[in-house]
């Protein structure tokens, strides 16, 4: 999450400016501190003959400090202001028109992602894990279904709030392949702390492959145990979750069509392992108290069945 | 203690006209209340500027009651000014007439507003516009009502013979508030009834 | 006296506390003793002390809340608190500190000190003063009513909609916050009105506007600011309450409302407010430093103008709290530049303090240490504000612990440190006893070190990506060690605060006797005895310079001297001098009201009114309205003793 370093043109100019202003700030603080210490401890030539004597016998005097200090500060400020405005303009638009647009919909406390395309058949929905191609700007359209959230991937760029009733637009670009953690930044209720996301920057080839993968629908499995699991899912989970290619089409919770392709579960809460998955389905409230998915949806045996089914969602 | 003498200047004692602290207090009350209305009208313009679709959503607000309302309040300010001049000249009866006439004009204003409210095709909870409309005019109505109470109390005090040409800062303060209510109405009137017609 | 006099040539006398005339003054001004006297007192000194004590109690409550939060955050994945509990704690912490500590504590200083600094016998509206205290107290209690129910406000102090709307946050908590804030707004507003009129009307003869102490400028500016800022937040909370309880749609997108309207109204208030909670405190320093540097403040006029300019500019920067909401770049650039401009008046003050220390001859008392510590903390807090003022940088910094660091540096640095220093400075005036210097220095160093250890690392945490308002965080992000340091540092700071309170308690009983002017300070409050008599001044002083008690030593011409022992006697009842607004020429002899229960009754009725609104109990609401009308009518009833009527 640390943005001492950023990895793309949406963040880099900010990082430079941030370092610049940070250094100015430190210098200002040090200079004032030195002047204060000097003022406190400098040797004063004339000792007061008696305590009733004032240091200065006239009210004026010392004004030079204010003139010089304020003058220098003003010059520094104007320079910083200019730099700020230039940076502001440069990060407000991507260097080239983004080829890819992702519609991000935030809700308490996870992210739904819709990859758009002029070709409707290449449009798909997933959740919590954003893949982007390296070296290309990507446009994000941000909407909220409930309260205000904020979309923030610190190592790639600044925040943009996600506000109900308006669609805010931002862009990001990663110049280096890798995993960049993001997190909701505006307080949005009980689980604001655990509303993370991941941006994975792939090489354009890998990205294309991932896209193709996501576009696949899950094949109907022939295995009986899987079908039993699917039935449980249909009974207990489908009201909230979608699995494309099945009858499950709920939209309250994340799309699970390719659940197993994701690295983490429940908006970055923990790695997507069998144990974590089972634990989550059995008792989400213990792991993410307040989350919009209830505890005890399925019994022990049904849980195994559902897990078997979920495992086919590659 | 050593008495050194008396001051060369003779000073008024107690609350005398604009020497009264209360006069200054009322000016600050008016400043903060005027800001309150400025924020209300800001809210109106903010929501208007973000509105999708027609604004105002129920067509142009009708002027048939609003214009008489405006005239009533302006007239009320004049009668009150006239009444206050009465007490300046040591004529409490004229002040009482001014108070009564202004209060009656204010009452009619409230009645007309009520009529307008009753005739609107929307309710407080219909949408953002209706919420604003009833809240802003409602805030103003409450101010008129408080103003009426003030006038009534002033009437009683005048009848009890509390005021004369020298001592009547309470009257000046109350009248100041009454003028303020008129001015606020002009701003409300402009915002809700005139501004949509200009755009 | 059957006839009320309308004009009088006031007597000029030479008198002191020990003169027989003081007995008359004392009997004029002293209230009834006992509980009755306590409940009906309108003495500004009494009210000021109550404000101070109540505000410090809220500081302790808010501090304890923070201490619990810090325990939860000390390690990753802690389970001390549930998310809901944590959210209530940080909200109540912010609300308590900002609204129930930071401004009220300054109102305490100002209430106590204003008439003494100005050479007056009371504030312009003593009863209004009592009202503003009682309403503050009741609003503070009101804001806490839902806390024991486990349903305290939980949406942060700025309470963004729609999370604060009924759909996402049912239950009484947000209604309590909304109504409590409107109630508290009444207290702030009447308090501000009182300060403004007092400044305009109640200065000692000769104390022209360019001779008032800087504290007066600070509180005046803050009060004017409040007058224009508080309506925004009262309105916003009222509209929120309407949305929640009566189905209006101000903030509801589904019916044409706007969530961002809330943010605009809140920050149009919020930003001026943050200056309102520091300008008087900066005034404390501007008046205290010169005393300990043994010289007048460098640049009185620029500092006074900078105070006013800060507030004026402060009304034009609110959008810097909303840089990430997707506003147009042009608009943001304007607000960004304005926020940077506001650094200039602050730099005037900083260089004035530095120059005062440099050219002065410092006396290292505890109060002085707190004032010097304040200067450097202000600079650190200020420059972090300067960084967030840059739009693009703020897009990273906003909503992180960097902002938490900024706000604590400015608030604790510019409010708590000067306030503690101010207590050390004026304690002898208030109680007649000095505080313990050795313990005072200990508490300074513990607080100063604890504060920096506790809050400086928050900057780094912010840059390491830690968002604010999170109740926990995973281990692998590496925020654990710094958070532990923060927690330990803030506990050290709390111990420093504890030492300070200890000092207050010990010194109340055992402190050395102070005398009238233990610091050899220059302003009027030091010319009367410690603690001051009920009537403040045996005669109304006449002022001829900014530093009346230093005049002999400031090479001034002799013909124009302030006089503290000779002046208007004004002893025919509770009287003080009203003067003209700019030049402070004697203008009117003001009759001050006697002690009264009406402020308490009115405040109680107001509190009941709000309880009625909270419970939708319309009869309670109606009944309290009637009481309010009766109480205010009786309050305003013309009184002969106040020379409001003639016959
Ligand atoms: C209490 C008082 C207080 C004061 C005095 C200030 C002072 C300033 N504040 Fe601060 N601010 C807060 C209280 C305060 N603030 C609070 C409570 C919040 C958080 C609210 C919340 O979200 O909960 C906040 C948040 C806040 C933000 C929003 C951050 C965010 O949420 O993203 C910003 C952005 O611009 C900001 C800016 C400033 C600036 C530019 C100043 C300036 O006035 C500072 C000027 C002073 C100096 C800079 C130091 C002295 C100057 C010199 C020595 C001259 C040389 C200096 C230079 C050349 C740089 N503040
Ligand atoms: C006047 C203002 C003020 C003051 C003085 C403080 C004081 C402190 N604050 Fe506060 N804080 C705010 C105003 C203030 N804060 C605001 C406005 C927010 C934003 C809220 C929001 O997001 O809505 C905030 C938020 C905030 C957060 C961020 C919460 C979050 O975003 O999740 C944290 C976290 O560490 C914190 C910590 C502290 C600590 C440790 C202190 C300490 O300095 C407290 C020290 C004082 C005491 C402890 C009490 C006195 C001491 C004793 C009685 C001794 C005995 C006690 C012990 C030994 C423990 N504060
Ligand atoms: Cu979503 Cu915070
Ligand atoms: Cu601000």
Main features:
heterotrimer; A: 314 residues; alpha+beta; Immunoglobulin-like; 3 domains; 5-stranded mixed beta sheet; 3-stranded mixed beta sheet; 12 strands; 18% strand; elongated; C: 647 residues; mainly alpha; Cytochrome C Oxidase, Chain A; 3-stranded antiparallel beta sheet; two-stranded antiparallel sheet; 19 helices; 6 strands; 4% strand; globular; binds heme-A; binds dinuclear copper ion; binds copper (II) ion
Topology:
The complex is a heterotrimer of chains A (about 325), B (about 200) and C (about 650).
Chain A: H1 12-41, H2 63-92, E1 100-107, E2 110-115, E3 124-127, E4 129-133, E5 138-144, E6 149-151, E7 160-162, E8 168-172, E9 178-183, E10 196-202, H3 204-215, H4 224-236, E11 264-265, E12 270-271, H5 274-282, H6 284-287, H7 300-310
Parallel strand pairs in A: 1-5, 4-10
Antiparallel strand pairs in A: 1-2, 2-3, 5-8, 6-7, 9-10, 11-12
Chain B: E1 2-6, E2 11-12, H1 21-49, H2 66-88, H3 92-119, H4 128-159, H5 169-198
Helix pairs in contact in B: 1-4, 1-5, 2-3, 2-5, 3-4, 4-5
Chain C: E1 7-8, E2 11-14, H1 20-29, H2 34-40, H3 44-73, H4 83-118, H5 126-143, H6 173-201, H7 214-246, H8 259-276, H9 279-293, H10 300-314, H11 329-341, H12 343-359, H13 366-388, H14 391-397, H15 401-431, H16 437-463, H17 480-510, E3 540-542, E4 563-568, E5 575-579, E6 586-591, H18 598-615, H19 618-636
Antiparallel strand pairs in C: 2-4, 3-4, 5-6
Helix pairs in contact in C: 3-4, 3-5, 3-17, 4-6, 4-15, 5-6, 5-18, 6-7, 6-18, 7-8, 7-9, 7-10, 8-10, 9-12, 9-13, 9-15, 10-12, 12-13, 13-15, 13-16, 15-16, 16-17, 18-19
Bound molecules: heme-A (2 copies), dinuclear copper ion and copper (II) ion.
Dinuclear copper ion binds near residues 184, 186 and 192 of chain A.
What does this structure look like?
The complex is a heterotrimer of chains A (314), B (199) and C (647). Chain A is of the alpha+beta class and 314 residues long. Chain A folds into three domains: 68 residues; 116 residues, Sandwich (Immunoglobulin-like); 87 residues, Cupredoxins -  blue copper proteins (Immunoglobulin-like). Chain A has seven helices and twelve strands. Chain A has a five-stranded mixed beta sheet, with no helix packed on it. In chain A, helix 4 packs across helix 7. Chain A is elongated, with a radius of gyration of 28 Å. The model of chain A has no long low-confidence stretch (mean pLDDT 92). Chain B has 199 residues and is mainly alpha-helical. In chain B, 71% of the residues lie in helices and 4% in strands. Chain B is built from five helices and two strands, in the order E-E-H-H-H-H-H. In chain B, helix 1 packs antiparallel against helix 4. Chain C is mainly alpha-helical and 647 residues long. Chain C has a domain of 234 residues: Cytochrome C Oxidase, Chain A. Chain C contains 19 helices and six strands. In chain C, the strands form two sheets. Chain C has a three-stranded antiparallel beta sheet, with no helix packed on it. Chain C has a two-stranded antiparallel ribbon with strand order 5-6. In chain C, strand 5 and strand 6 form a beta hairpin. Classes of the chains: A alpha+beta (314), B mainly alpha (199), C mainly alpha (647). Chains A and C meet through helix 1 and helix 2 of A and helix 4, helix 11, helix 12, helix 13 and helix 14 of C. One heme-A (HEA) binds next to helix 3, helix 4, helix 15 and helix 17 of chain C. One heme-A (HEA) sits at the interface of chains C and A.
């Amino acid at each position: 999450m640390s943005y001492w370093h950023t990895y793309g043109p949406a963040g880099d100019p900010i990082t430079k400016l941030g370092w610049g202003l940070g250094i100015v700030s430190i210098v200002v603080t040090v200079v004032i501190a030195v002047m204060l210490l000097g003022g406190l401890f400098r040797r004063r030539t004339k000792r007061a003959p008696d305590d009733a004597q004032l240091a200065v016998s006239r009210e004026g005097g010392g004004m030079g400090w204010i003139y010089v200090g304020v003058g220098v500060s003003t010059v520094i400020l104007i320079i910083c202001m200019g730099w700020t405005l230039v940076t502001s303009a440069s990060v407000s638009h991507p260097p080239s028109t983004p080829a890819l647009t992702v519609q991000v919909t935030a809700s308490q406390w996870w992210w739904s992602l819709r990859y758009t395309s002029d070709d409707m058949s290449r449009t798909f929905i997933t959740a919590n894990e954003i893949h982007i191609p390296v070296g290309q700007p990507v446009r994000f359209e941000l909407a909220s279904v409930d309260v205000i959230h904020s979309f923030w991937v610190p190592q790639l760029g600044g925040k943009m709030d996600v506000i109900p009733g308006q669609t805010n637009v931002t862009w990001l670009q990663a110049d280096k392949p890798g995993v960049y953690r993001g997190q909701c930044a505006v307080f949005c209720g009980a689980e604001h702390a655990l509303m993370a996301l991941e941006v994975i920057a792939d090489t354009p080839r890998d990205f294309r492959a991932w896209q193709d993968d996501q576009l696949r629908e899950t094949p109907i499995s022939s295995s009986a145990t899987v079908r039993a699991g699917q039935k449980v899912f249909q009974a207990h989970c489908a009201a909230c979750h979608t699995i494309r290619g099945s009858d499950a089409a709920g939209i309250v919770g994340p799309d699970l069509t390719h659940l197993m392709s994701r690295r983490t579960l429940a908006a970055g809460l923990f790695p997507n392992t069998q144990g974590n998955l089972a634990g989550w389905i059995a008792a989400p409230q213990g792991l993410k108290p307040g989350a919009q998915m209830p505890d005890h949806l399925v019994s022990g045996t049904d849980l195994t069945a559902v897990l078997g089914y979920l495992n086919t969602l590659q | 203690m050593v008495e050194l003498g008396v001051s060369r200047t003779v000073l008024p004692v107690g609350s005398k006209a604009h020497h009264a602290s209360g006069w200054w207090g009322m000016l600050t009350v008016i400043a903060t209340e005027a800001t309150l209305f400025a924020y209300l009208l800001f809210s109106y313009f903010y929501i208007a500027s973000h509105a999708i679709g027609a604004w105002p959503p129920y067509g142009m607000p009708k002027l048939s009651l609003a214009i008489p309302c405006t005239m009533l309040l302006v007239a009320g300010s004049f009668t009150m000014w006239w009444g206050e001049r009465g007490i300046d000249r040591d004529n409490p009866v004229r002040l009482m007439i001014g108070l009564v006439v202004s209060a009656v004009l204010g009452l009619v204003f409230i009645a007309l507003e009520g009529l307008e409210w009753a005739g609107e095709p929307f309710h407080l909870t219909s949408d953002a516009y209706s919420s604003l409309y009833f809240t802003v005019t409602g805030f103003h109505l409450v101010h008129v009502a408080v103003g009426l109470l003030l006038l009534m109390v002033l009437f009683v005090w005048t009848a009890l013979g509390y005021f004369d040409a020298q001592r009547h800062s309470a009257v000046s303060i109350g009248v100041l508030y009454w003028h303020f209510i008129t001015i606020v109405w002009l701003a409300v009137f402009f915002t809700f009834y005139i501004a949509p017609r200009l755009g | 006296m059957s006839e009320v006099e309308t004009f009088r040539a006031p007597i000029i006398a030479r008198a002191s506390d020990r003169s027989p005339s003081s007995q008359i003054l004392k009997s004029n001004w002293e209230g009834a003793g006992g509980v009755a006297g306590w409940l009906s007192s309108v003495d500004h000194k009494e009210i000021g002390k109550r404000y101070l004590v109540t505000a410090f109690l809220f500081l302790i409550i808010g501090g304890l809340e923070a201490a619990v939060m810090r325990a939860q955050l000390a390690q990753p994945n802690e389970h001390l608190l549930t998310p809901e509990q944590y959210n209530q704690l940080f909200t109540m912490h912010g609300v308590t500190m900002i609204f129930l500590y930071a401004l009220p504590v300054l109102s305490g200083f100002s209430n106590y000190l204003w008439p003494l600094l100005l050479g007056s016998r009371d504030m312009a509206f003593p009863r209004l003063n009592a009202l503003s205290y009682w309403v503050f107290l009741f609003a503070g209690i009101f804001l806490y009513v839902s806390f024991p129910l486990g349903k305290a406000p939980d949406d942060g102090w700025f309470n963004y909609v729609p999370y604060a709307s009924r759909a996402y946050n049912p239950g009484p908590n947000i209604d309590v916050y909304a109504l409590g804030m409107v109630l508290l707004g009444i207290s702030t507003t009447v308090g501000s009105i009182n300060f403004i009129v007092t400044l305009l009307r109640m200065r000692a003869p000769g104390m022209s506007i360019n001779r008032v102490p800087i504290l007066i400028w600070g509180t005046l500016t803050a009060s004017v600011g409040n007058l224009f800022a508080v309506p925004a937040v009262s309105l916003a909370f009222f509209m929120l309450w309407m949305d929640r309880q009566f189905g209006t749609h101000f903030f509801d997108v589904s019916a044409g409302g706007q969530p961002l309207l809330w943010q605009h109204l809140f920050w149009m208030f919020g930003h001026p407010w943050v200056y309102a909670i520091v300008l008087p405190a900066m005034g404390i320093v501007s008046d205290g430093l010169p005393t300990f540097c043994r010289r007048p403040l460098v640049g009185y006029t620029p500092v006074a103008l900078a105070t006013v300019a800060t507030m004026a500019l402060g009304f034009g920067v609110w959008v810097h709290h909303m840089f990430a909401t997707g506003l147009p770049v042009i608009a943001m650039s304007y607000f960004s530049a304005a926020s940077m401009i506001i650094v200039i008046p602050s730099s005037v003050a900083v260089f004035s303090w530095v120059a005062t220390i440099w050219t002065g001859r410092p006396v290292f008392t505890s109060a002085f240490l707190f004032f010097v510590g304040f200067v450097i903390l202000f600079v650190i807090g200020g420059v972090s504000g300067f960084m967030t003022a840059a739009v693009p940088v703020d897009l990273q910094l906003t909503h992180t612990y960097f902002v938490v660091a900024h706000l604590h540096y400015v608030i604790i640095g510019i409010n708590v440190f000067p306030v503690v220093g101010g207590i050390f400075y004026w304690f002898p005036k208030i109680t007649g006893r000095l505080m313990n210097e050795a313990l005072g220095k200990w508490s300074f160093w513990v607080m100063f070190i604890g504060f920096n250890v506790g809050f400086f690392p928050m900057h780094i945490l912010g840059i390491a990506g830690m968002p604010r308002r999170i109740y926990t965080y995973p281990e692998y992000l590496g925020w654990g060690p710094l958070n532990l340091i923060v927690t330990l540092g803030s506990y050290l700071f709390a111990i420093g605060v504890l030492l300070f309170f200890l000092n207050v308690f010990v010194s109340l009983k055992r402190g050395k006797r102070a005398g009238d002017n233990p610091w050899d300070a220059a302003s009027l409050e030091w010319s009367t005895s410690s603690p001051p008599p009920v009537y403040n001044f045996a005669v109304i002083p006449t002022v001829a310079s900014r530093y009346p008690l230093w005049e002999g030593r400031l090479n001034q011409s002799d013909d124009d001297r302030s006089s503290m022992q000779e002046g208007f006697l004004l002893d025919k009842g509770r009287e003080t001098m009203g003067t003209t607004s700019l030049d402070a020429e004697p203008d009117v002899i003001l009759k001050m009201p006697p002690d009264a229960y009406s402020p308490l009754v009115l405040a109680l009725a107001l509190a009941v009114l709000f309880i009625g609104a909270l419970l939708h109990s319309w009869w309670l609401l109606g009944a309290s309205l009637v009481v309010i009308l009766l109480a205010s009518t009786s309050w305003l009833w013309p009184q002969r003793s106040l020379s409001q009527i003639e016959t």
